[in-house]
Amino acid sequence: MPDTQDNAFMRFLNEKLVPFSTKVAQNKYIQAIGGGSMSLMAIIPGFFVALVFGALRFAFSFTSYGNMIDCVYTLLQTPLAGITGSLPGFIILIIVAQALKEEQNTESAELAA
Length: 113
What we know:
Elements: H1 8-26, H2 28-34, H3 37-60, H4 68-83, H5 87-112
Helix pairs in contact: 1-3
């Protein structure tokens, strides 16, 4: 598993968002309005999460799916339901799941050692 510092999103949070939210929270005008820096620092990440998912919702409104739920249903649930509808497909699905579980257990054992 890659280190969190290698992840682009975590780098963005650590290098850009945290210093920005700290500067905003230390602003004397915001402290007078918000009553303290900690209450405002909790709002800023929530605002960015709402902004990202709002943008995703807006983008999906232009697709043929209409929303994210219909997209997941069409792309994942419908094909998986077709696979499990037959015995050979179900057996293949069980074998793949077991192989992935073994790989996960192997990685966990390597990290523990």
